[in-house]
Automatic annotation (TrEMBL):
The keyword Transferase does not apply. It comes from Emiliania huxleyi (strain CCMP1516). Keywords: Membrane, Signal, Transmembrane, Transmembrane helix. This is Uncharacterized protein. InterPro entries: TMEM220 (IPR029377). The chain crosses the membrane at residues 32-51, 63-84, 139-161.
Amino acid sequence: MLRSSATAAYLVLAALFFSAAAFANLNDPDPLWWVVAYVGGGVALPAAHALESRPARRRQLLGAAAALAAALGVVISVFSGRLWPRLDFGLPLGALAWSALEEEEGREAVGLTLLLLHVLLVASLLLPEGEGGGRSSLVSAGAMLALGGAVVAAIGAWVFARPDMIAKQGVAHCEGAFGGLSQLLGF
């Protein structure tokens, strides 16, 4: 049950983004986990939120969102733990961020962090009005805009600012992942 057109617009755009993320991970050595995570949390959970109006079912969805958020937190911690020792913390902050994104675990942690923020936002929308959820308030709108901005910034940084990142690291499963599309876009 959608409470505002802004929420509906956000959920549609997020579903498109996470569908694209799932598609992009089809060539990963372990695609099943990524596709399930991105489609489940990014598409199916918000779709169920939009379609379900019964309070008991919405509470079940809230429980599923909480479990998914907890699982994502654990996986992000594992990826970050693997990444941490390889980072040079003597670098300036911008260079440190790029060096983290040059590592497979860094990119995976960022993707899962975006998914976690999205799942938490959907969970807040699932809460009953009287329990602090489902608000069409400035806070909810701000959260949607912040998450949307983070997604746009991540895509922009990846595609336009650092197209050499994959080639530099020699990530075999990413090179040529989209056929001629990378040549068409010039990277």
